[in-house]
Amino acid sequence: MTRDSKQSNKIIPPEVLLNGYRQGIFPMSEQRDDDSVGWYSARLRGIIPIEEFRVSKNVQRIIRQKRFECRINTCFRRVVEECANRETTWISDLIINSFEVLHMSGHAHSVEMYNKNKDLAGGLYGVTLGAAFFGESMFRQEKEADKVALWHCHQILKKNGFELWDTQFYTDHLAQFGCVEISADEYKERLTRALKRRAVFKNGR
Q1: How far apart are the two ends of the chain, measured CA to CA in Å?
Q2: Is pTM, for the whole model, over 0.85?
Q3: CB 100 within 8 A of CB 76
Q4: Full 3-state SS string of 151-164
Q5: What angle do CA 91, 93, 94 make, to 5 degrees?
Q6: pLDDT, mean of residues 171-191
């Protein structure tokens, strides 16, 4: 992982964020109250090939049972705040505020899972640019809700013609969903192709 530069503004302008993603770099803070971000890239990039995404039989059963209701972009800021609500986090208030503005510009989206009581049970958020989706973080309040959110995210990406699903890093946790590592050069090629196309992050058929 390489670190590039610091950003000290209270809000990172959407055009700065998007330019970073176009270059294959992404922002992270040191802690929740950090008023700056570092820009990072991974020498080996994690992606989930959209055609190879998978979930466990248990998650498939929960989906069939319709245990959670999926909504898109109804409480974006809360989803990001929930993702940041952990002992150690790279999601600072600066990032939360900045991505909320990016969301209002139409380039950041949340997938939200609600239980039968209409309480937020889990979700994820990410950035869209061209036909690329850059997954940022996910959370759960109830067992498997984050994995069901990931499944719904895959359905959205597949139905709307997205070509690149970037997870930034490869982890053993993401490997269960089909995540693989690719070289920086291959990632740049895939990113370049995806940026030449347009896809819309929307739910429904």
Answers
A1: 39
A2: yes
A3: yes
A4: HHHHHHHHHCCCCE
A5: 90
A6: 97
Question: For helices 57-64 and 145-159, what crossing angle results, to 10°?
Answer: 80
Could you give the CA distance from residue 145 to residue 121 in angstroms, rounded to a whole number? Answer: 6
CA distance 90 to 34: 9
CB atoms within 10 A of CB 96: 17
User: Burial, 118: exposed, middle or buried (Cβ in 10 Å; 0-12, 13-18, 19+)?
Assistant: exposed
Q: Helix, strand or coil for residue 100?
A: helix
Tokens coding 145: 């809700």
pLDDT score, position 205: 52
Instruction: Tell how strand 108-114 and strand 164-168 pair up.
Output: unpaired
Judge contact between 130 and 196, C-beta under 8 A.
Answer: yes
pLDDT at res. 4: 45
Place of tokens 């050069």: 185
Q: Are 202 and 160 in contact (CB under 8 A)?
A: yes
Half-sphere exposure of 117 (CA within 13 A, CB side): 4
Domains and CATH numbers, the chain: 43-195 (3.40.630.70)
